[in-house]
Amino acid sequence: MAGLRTVGAIVLALAVLALLGTDVTHMVAGAMAAMVATFAIKEKEVRGQAVTLACGLLVALAAMSLGALLHTRIIAGDIFFVLLIFGAVYGRRFGDRGTALGLIGFQVYFVSLFVQATVGALPELYLTLAVAFACSAVARFALVPETPQRTLRRLREAFRARLAQLVAAQMELLDATPDDDLDKVLDSLRRRTARLHEAALMIQGRLEEGTRDEATAARLQRRIADAEIAAERLGVILLNARSAERADTITMHLPHAPVQVAAERLPSEDAATRTLRRDLGALHLLIARRGADDRGMALAHVRNRLLGYRDEDKLPAASPAVQDVFRGIGEAARAVLGLRLALDGPQDASDDTPATARSREEFDAEDVAMAGLDEAAEEAADERTGLQRPTTRAAFQVAVGSTLAIIGGEFLSSQRWYWAVLTCWVVFLNTASTGEILVKGYRRLVGTVLGVVAGVALAGLVGNNTWLAFALVLLLIFGMFFTAPLSYALMSFCVTAMLGLLYTLLNTYSLAVLVLRIEETALGAACGIIAAVLVLPVHTDRRTDELLGTVLERLRDVVTAAVSQLSGGPAADLLDMARDLDSALDDLRASTQPLTHPITPLRGRRQTARYLVALLETCAYHARSLAATAELVPYSKNVAADPRLERAGKRIARNIDIIVARVVDESTRGEVSSGASIASVLEANGTAGPASGTVTFRVLRHLQRLDEGVIGLARPLEVPVSGRNVGTTG
């Protein structure tokens, strides 16, 4: 959508400028200004977008004026450029608007250098900028409107599609045999599980602005979480039913984790297997059918049959592992029903069975309970000040790197030196450590080299055909936005190939110019890396340790609050806490990319980083499941508080605290406690353990996996593990 919106703005700007008889140079300036005016603004509210766009035009006019005035004053122009870069990066501390205005100021000043703006050309350039920003407004608010409600609606449909794709992958797993390409099936299952989680997080970021009130947002948040957890749990228990040995949940998160599948566990002609295959297909149908299509007795019968598996007496005769899969299908069907109620409104209840009616009553009770919860507390502001603030540090780093790039770029070319500055600027965007800057600079250089090759081919293809060149430029701009979330190297490829076409339009194209582009890019990346290493450096190890500590603290908070509520303690907003954990985990995953990148020479650290992230993802899954179950306690007829669970949660929380202390300070002493299972901790007072299939049994299973996961984290982090059991002491 961002690509379509940007291309639409550029097409409008080119059409208007062509009707005004503007020359090619100013058309290029208008196209670049329309592009930056469109992609720089990230605010969610329409009113905020309009205000930022109006302010952006003023900033653009000022940047173009200063670029023209300083055109012949080399030293003054260079000093101003560095100050502008510092201000643009520092402005990120003021949120989306500060980021957008800084980006517009930098890019428009860059455009003034690109088209070699002069004072005499300012009136026409002013008109060009005004046209570009007006066309950006038309594309944003009329042609491809972006409102929080529209974005949330698209994300909801995307979540529904991802959910159906995940169930389809689970159906493939059911029929896979050791002779098939099992690794491919498992990779598909992991990938679709991760994509469903990404869609859920994206919805979480749009709920506040995209819904009409807080109650609607809370209800949708709960239903999305239920569906995600139920679908992931179904995959785990299906994998367990297919495995020769019990599969660990980490298999769902660690690529290439070994799994031994035994086809004889689920014979294809077995009645239970045939029923299971049929019901997975029915679940897929329930998800894929939209609310408007949810009519007729047949679909209601399918829904009622699947919901019946929530009752023990409705389970088909099969092994305990297979019966667990049927229970999972029942819980997934319940989650799909809740998702339909939240997304599509009230459903026809005339054909409800007792199991379906009970599920609806549970949803109504949940809605009433959620309405009574206190509002979530706002996130604490970053208390760091001065040079410790990330935006201030990055501003100084990029200013020093840009100064080096200007000096080095002038030696390479007195006309194209700004390409080095642009690369130095870009490698600092959305990066927070030296390792991230190194990887981004490497990807930028690879994409640039390939883009130069493509630029040579496209320039020969276009020749003197101006409109064909503009058409290809638009195609590459769309490709730039479309590939940005997928691969930074691919995005850099599109940018460089597009620049080759722009040089063709400006009649300045030559092979030497494109080779210079590679040299300037390499220089800019090198200057950025040097600045990151020498000026207020943030080492990758320190950055990942900070984020690891944050993830562990949020994991402890979720587990402690969930166990407290499951033990009969006060209610808390557990879903918000779980989403905060997911957000912190996403930040950690991004920060470990330099450690897991193929160019990393330290193979041992790469494997350790991947293992830790996978283990934390597994722990987060079990924490989300605990949170979802705990929120049922106050109003569910089937989920009752069990005071014994409080004892089980203490060992996990204590172990996490010890690991956090060791991550923060390596000299900290302490041992992670292992020993007896979580279930035996509950049995320490002489009471019997819970029966299989009960909610308490499921909670214990999640706690057991969490306990094992936390102990597993201790070993690669070099935290001592003791064998004594402290859990029974209370």
Describe the structure.
It is a single chain. This protein is globular. Strands 1-2 form a two-stranded parallel ribbon. The protein contains 27 helices and 2 strands. Residues 373-382 and 724-730 have low confidence and may be disordered. Helix 17 (434-462) packs parallel to helix 19, helix 21 (540-566) packs antiparallel against helix 22 (574-591) and helix 25 (645-664) runs parallel beside helix 27 (695-714). The protein is mainly alpha-helical. The two termini are 55 Å apart. The protein is 71% helix and 1% strand.
Question: How would the blueprint of this fold be written?
Answer:
Layout: H1 2-19, H2 24-39, H3 46-69, H4 74-90, H5 95-114, H6 122-143, H7 148-175, H8 182-204, H9 207-210, H10 214-242, H11 271-288, H12 297-307, H13 320-344, H14 354-371, H15 390-412, H16 418-428, H17 434-462, H18 466-483, H19 488-505, H20 511-534, H21 540-566, H22 574-591, H23 593-596, H24 603-630, H25 645-664, E1 672-673, H26 678-682, H27 695-714, E2 721-722
Parallel strand pairs: 1-2
Helix pairs in contact: 1-2, 1-6, 1-18, 2-5, 2-6, 3-5, 3-6, 4-5, 4-15, 7-8, 7-10, 7-11, 8-10, 10-13, 10-24, 11-12, 11-13, 15-16, 15-20, 16-17, 16-20, 17-19, 17-20, 18-19, 21-22, 21-24, 21-25, 22-24, 24-27, 25-27
